[in-house]
From TrEMBL, chain A:
Subcellular localization, as worded in the UniProt entry: Cell inner membrane; Cell membrane
Gene Ontology annotations of biological process type: response to zinc ion; transmembrane transport; zinc ion transport
CDD domains named in the record: TM_ABC_iron-siderophores_like
Organism: Marinomonas aquiplantarum
Role description: Involved in the high-affinity zinc uptake transport system.
Protein name per its UniProtKB record: High-affinity zinc uptake system membrane protein ZnuB
Family listed: Belongs to the ABC-3 integral membrane protein family.
Parts of the chain that traverse the membrane: 6-28, 40-72, 84-104, 125-148, 168-201, 213-233, 239-257
TrEMBL record, chain B:
Pfam family, one: ABC_tran
Protein name: Zinc transport system ATP-binding protein
PANTHER family recorded: METAL TRANSPORT SYSTEM ATP-BINDING PROTEIN TM_0124-RELATED, ZINC IMPORT ATP-BINDING PROTEIN ZNUC
SUPFAM superfamilies: P-loop containing nucleoside triphosphate hydrolases
Domain ABC transporter: 6-221
Length: 265, 255
């Protein structure tokens, strides 16, 4: 049992550490709904992965990136408002995923685990995936931090100064897709975005610079994972939702108590 | 002869068959301050965006000198309130910036004390200076300023224009700025190009303000409340019939 908890903790901390910094970008760029759409489509990725017997993580990443590309193309055509477009894609891809899963007669999958996550069910292999994907995300964030931030602050200035704006935007979508793929095991497709947004939003209250905010978001995400796991162990609550509730509590605390920003007197 | 940094060659831009710009020709030389002027919706910003590569021209082309390096100052800065960002960090985002140059640049613009301020709390004038600092840190030989004095009071506007002129004198760079009136910018400008979809008229400020096309758009200079600002232009006196009298020097201004 303790072995199981330990593995869950290691996996959860890995996911929270990468979801934090990326969540900061999602918040800054107002991509919350976009993240949600990609996350919802991840279930379709799972179904397709099982159907064609390819690695599920890979299937999710490919599907998310594909969907992101479709989204950007449709956005440029200005046929309908972006939020409507996101709503259509999010829910139709989720439904499509649910329908596709129902066709998989010979494979028994735990739908609830995919929708809401089941941290206690992660395997050693899952942990490896989380850390491989997580390290890739962190490495890309560190290497491309300045261009990513420059494009986020002001795209036009960045473009005039010669940053490859389109590629950077694509990179950010790829990173979001990667995080969704590795985080799905922990909190499920319906709750992934919350693990990115809530710690980042909480960190905003406490930080003065972008780097601070990204770092604090990681720490808060980790605290939420610990708290969620603990309550899950103590009261037998579902782990995914417990982690999210914990994050929401931390958010409430940060915004109701008179905290000062780091470095402020 | 200073080198020509940018030449617009018959630039035309249209959306859904509606022409925004039609056959615009103009040039900007090194060391020259060019002011682009025109009413709202005349296509000033569109023309600037074409130069910056943010907008593609439907017809014609922009010929850029191979040495061209643009420092761009947008109209305003919107940074999402969820993004904590100090002036220092904002300026450090310039591509390939020399971080040692940040403080001296702020010093030169008189805003050294803002180094650690959050960009969200700056006043209009402070924001404009920070944006100007960012443009300068790109080590430009052409400054492109889109309505640089927007949201700044009259005194602040005069100071900003002085600053821009000082930068031109110091760096010898070209300056292209957009303005929707000429009153304050007049004295600091070498060339004025007045556009309204097409080039209405261009030349020295004195020439343009006397041009019928300019007066049709902006009225006769001195005919409105801005007369005080123009007083220094009246370095001549009129007789009862409105004819200009000969004078030996410019110091006697009898009104």
């Amino acid at each position: 049992m303790l072995d199981l908890l330990f593995r869950a903790l290691i996996g959860g901390l890995g996911v929270a550490s990468v979801a934090g910094p990326l969540g900061a970008f999602v918040v800054w760029r107002r991509m919350a709904y976009f993240g949600d759409t990609l996350a919802h489509s991840a279930l379709l990725g799972v179904a397709l992965g099982l159907l064609f017997e390819i690695n599920l993580n890979l299937a999710i990443i490919v599907l998310c990136v594909g969907l992101a590309a479709v989204l950007v193309t449709l956005q440029k055509k200005h046929i309908i408002a972006t939020d409507t477009l996101l709503g259509i894609l999010a829910h139709s891809s989720l439904s499509l995923g649910l329908v596709a899963v129902s066709f998989l007669d010979d494979v028994r999958i735990d739908l609830m685990a995919y929708l809401f996550g089941d941290l206690l069910a992660i395997s050693q292999l899952d942990v490896y995936w989380i850390y491989a994907g997580g390290l890739a995300v962190i490495a890309l964030l560190v290497i491309f931090w300045k261009p990513l931030l420059a494009v986020t602050v002001n795209e036009e200035l960045a473009k005039v100064e010669g940053y490859p704006v389109e590629s950077i935007r694509l990179l950010l979508m790829l990173l979001v897709a990667l995080v969704i793929a590795v985080a799905m095991k922990i909190v499920g497709v319906l709750l992934i975005t919350s693990l990115m947004i809530i710690p980042a939003a909480t960190a905003r209250k406490l930080s003065k610079t972008p780097v601070q905010m990204a770092f604090i978001a990681s720490v808060i995400g980790c605290l939420a994972v610990c708290g969620g796991l603990w309550s899950s162990y103590r009261w037998d609550t579902p782990t995914g939702p417990s982690v999210v509730v914990c994050a929401a509590l931390l958010f409430l605390i940060a915004y109701t108590l008179p905290f000062k920003r780091l470095g402020e007197r | 002869m200073s080198k020509c940094l940018v030449e617009f060659d018959k630039i035309g831009i249209s959306f859904d068959g509606r022409a925004l710009l039609d056959s615009i020709n103009m040039t900007i030389n090194e060391g020259e301050i060019v002011t682009l002027i025109g009413p709202n919706g005349s296509g000033k910003s569109t023309l600037i965006r074409t130069l910056l590569g943010l907008q593609t021209a439907t017809t014609g082309s922009v010929i850029r000198h191979e040495s061209l390096r643009i420092g761009y100052m947008p109209q305003k800065l919107h940074v999402d309130p969820t993004l904590p960002l100090t002036v220092k960090h904002f300026l450090a985002l310039v591509r390939g910036v020399n971080k040692k140059a940040i403080e001296p640049t702020l010093d030169k613009l008189g805003i050294a004390h803002l180094l650690n301020s959050q960009v969200h709390v700056l006043s209009g004038g402070e924001t404009q200076r920070v944006l100007l600092a960012r443009a300068l840190l790109n080590r430009p030989n052409l400054l492109v300023l889109d309505e640089p004095v927007q949201g700044v009071d009259v005194n602040g506007q005069v100071e900003l224009y002085n600053l821009i002129e000082g930068i031109r004198d110091e760096l010898g760079c070209g300056v292209l700025m957009v303005s929707h009136d000429l009153h304050l910018v007049m004295a600091k400008t070498d060339t004025v190009v007045c556009i309204n979809q097409h080039v209405c008229c261009s030349g020295t400020p004195q020439h343009v303000t006397g041009h019928p096309a300019y007066q049709a758009l902006f009225g006769v200079p001195g005919a409105d409340e801005s007369i005080a600002i123009y007083a220094h232009q009246h370095d001549h006196v009129h007789d009862e019939h409105g004819d200009i009298l000969e004078q030996d020097d410019h110091t006697h201004c009898h009104h």
